[in-house]
Design brief:
Blueprint: H1 9-21, H2 25-32, H3 36-43, H4 51-60, H5 65-74, H6 92-104, E1 110-113, E2 119-122, H7 124-129, H8 144-149, H9 161-178, H10 182-194, E3 212-215, E4 224-232, H11 240-243, E5 246-252, H12 255-266
Antiparallel strand pairs: 1-2, 1-5, 3-4, 4-5
Helix pairs in contact: 1-5, 2-3, 2-4, 4-5, 9-10
GO molecular function: DNA binding
Domain HTH cro/C1-type: 14-68
InterPro entries: Cro/C1-type_HTH, Lambda_DNA-bd_dom_sf, MLTR_LBD
Length: 267
Amino acid sequence: MITESTGGGLAGALRVWRTRRRVSQLELAVRAGTTQRHVSFIESGRSIPGRSMIIRLAESLEVPIRERNELLLAAGFAPVYPQTRLDDPQLEPIRTALERILHGHLPYPAVVVDRHGDLVSANAAFHALTAGVAPHLLAPPVSVPRMLLHPRGLAPRILNLDEWAWHLIDSIEAECARNPDDRLQDLASELTDLAPPRPRGSPHHLGFAVPLRLRTPDPADGRELTLITTLTHFGTATDVTIAELRLEAFLPADRATGTVLAELLER
């Protein structure tokens, strides 16, 4: 048995993740196929598990694979999950698949973002929808949440800004609570400063989703779009870059919105 004298490193990190997931030592042991005693020894710093056990524990706690690498490093092992640049030739099948999905979603907007909400790719319908956004908000890296809520972004055109802004902020803060990230936390604070006061009373939205009610880009047009969103990710990815990609697709909540989106794309 390998022992260590401190409660930090792997021991402390594992305790933090288990507490964050609200999982008992016994439940974690059952999930990972080990004993509560072994988990207790690991968390107290009395033993360091092998690489395969660390991976099993991390998988059982649904730790993101970037942070799984950090757990392995804390125990003295090399990372096992690669982080490949998206423009690497090895990822051409992934890029091709994403572009096909984006194109296939037309005439409705869709984007691919990374873990911080920075734009990776977008289809023509999204660019049509964001016409008129200030150029500095479109300079890479483009933060999609910032562009949505910034006063020189889409915020002036969002008819339910108070409701939708806090829906977005709450989603980011929930992600930070589940998987802490300094950049995401800073973004949530920035968006909170941009958002109007949180609305009181019952929300005025559909029962199954919070809609984005948005005016069309042309002020002379002024028609309203009602959109709902879906989020998709690669559930079995073993590469950090791929695992952190998110596809956000905007869907019309009514027939009129679908018609207007088709018109915007044609223009």
